[in-house]
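Let us begin with a simple case.
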Amino acid sequence: MKNKILRLIPLIALVLGLSACDDHNYGGEDVAEGSISFASFGVDVQEGQTVVESRTGIDVSGYLVKIVNTATGRVVMQSAYGQLPGVISLPVSDYKIKVESHEVQPAEFDRPYYAGETAVKVSANSISDAGKVTCRFSSIRVSIRYADNLRPLLGDDVTVTVNTRGTGELVFTPTDSRSGYFEAVEGSTTLVAIFRGTVNGQLTELRKELTDIKAGDHRIITFKIKLPDDFPDAGGTIDPSTGVTIDSSVENVDRNGNVTFEEDNLGGDDRPGQEGPEGPENPDNPNIPDKPDSDVSMTAPELVFDEQMDCSPKNGIVNIHADSGIAHLYIKVDTDNDDFRDIALQMFGEGKFDFADPNMSEESKAQLEPLGLSYGDAILNQTDVPFDISMFIPLLSGFRGTTTFSLTVVSNNGAELSKSLIFKAE
């Protein structure tokens, strides 16, 4: 076990070294360098089709400015816009200057995400101008509305849950006037909205998928009562048994101001109170499939899920299965050991890290390969994946405390399963 730990020491030193470097030491003494000048650098924000200059309209002093090496994907400098240096020296290479309103979150209320970038080339012994970056609305906005003929029938328990199948989720209530903002992930263009609660005293659960979504879209979902053509005028009284259904209309406004309108029934016999429980135990509604939880599974021959273990297991393989293929495989590391926390943050960042991300940076790949961890195409859309953390277990024995690896697998049909591996080193 000691030999295994010794073999991992260079990796630990590398990871810790990434955060220990001085901010202004971006290359060795023998590396040719040039400079980027921020003297005339500016950030504008595009609101729809209107560009608002930062000097007059929007405070961008807190916007994040990152310089990214184009070849490696590595962030070589990060600063708030209001704290940028006048000039920065960098090794000769091609770079991107990326500007973000904030670190994008999987889902959040009332906080739109703006981003933009520009390319700059650093040449030996010369100064390149940083230029100007225009930030555009780059998240997905979702608003929930209720038609006047439906709102009086809504119970206090009504919610609409909107999720991105594993990366983010927000819950709207009928009193919410807020919009939700979701991270736009390349290759993941589906949101799911689930209406739950009582309508006119009858329990209702409906599901709506929003597809072909891209950064900059605003999807407005309006729920309303739909009456049949022969519905009798009963003085404003609505009885679900007479054929009342709930419809949804979806309006999409993109960031260029273009509007499309989709009229779409939520599917099946969606008469309030007629859904009943899902699955084959409901013979009155056989067309609703089983919940997809059985689509995914996780097994580990020598590990115990959700219970504390020591660091003795030699086999750290977790066998992951998804009938419809794996869409996401997230890991989140929590530890009470400060040293290991620094390592985990450098490798996986804060929050959840997606091993199935098809757009994973080259820097992340370089850190995962020495550990023998699968990523990218080796996981994405696969039905069976042996996820091996064997090399982590002896490493943990050198860091006293408790460390939890939280694994979450999300299948292509939206099923989700989470389990934890909890290790304690004395």
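The second case is a distinct protein. As before, the sequence precedes its structure tokens.
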Amino acid sequence: MDYQSLVAFNGWTFIAQILNLFIQLYLFKRFLFKPIKNILAKRQAEVDAIYDEADKAKLDAQTAKTDYEAHLLTANAEAEAITQRAMESARAQSDALITSAQAEAAAMKQKAEADIELERRKAVNEMKGEISDLAVSIASKVVSKELKAEDHERLIEQFIEELGDEA
């Protein structure tokens, strides 16, 4: 074996090797690199689509969250307003009931006072009648012969008026 032949420069062999290298590069590029690039481009497109969908979902979630928070705030405000109106309504009803009860109590008191006054007057009139009857009978027995009936009645009426003024 001749080692020198391994290192020697042969022009046709060199050209054939260069042509062989270019053919291999062309074949690798055509059948290996292009399909791999296409696969990588498709995968990159899929990843980009997934990222776009994730960004869109994140944006939708943020929008939904802000809408939810806005609805929650309005719901809280409405609940507060409803509670306030209910409390005001309850106060108004309570005040109305109290006012009505007070008016009813005052009317009952006034009626009771009027009834008491009426009964007192009846009792006074009855007492006057009884007193006048007693006075007439006593006076008639005591002074039957000394006074006339008209004078006697006048004295009784005067006595009753004095009693009425004192009562």
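The CA atoms of residues 134 and 140 lie 10 Å apart. The chain has a mean pLDDT of 86.
Keep these points in mind for the review questions at the end of the chapter.
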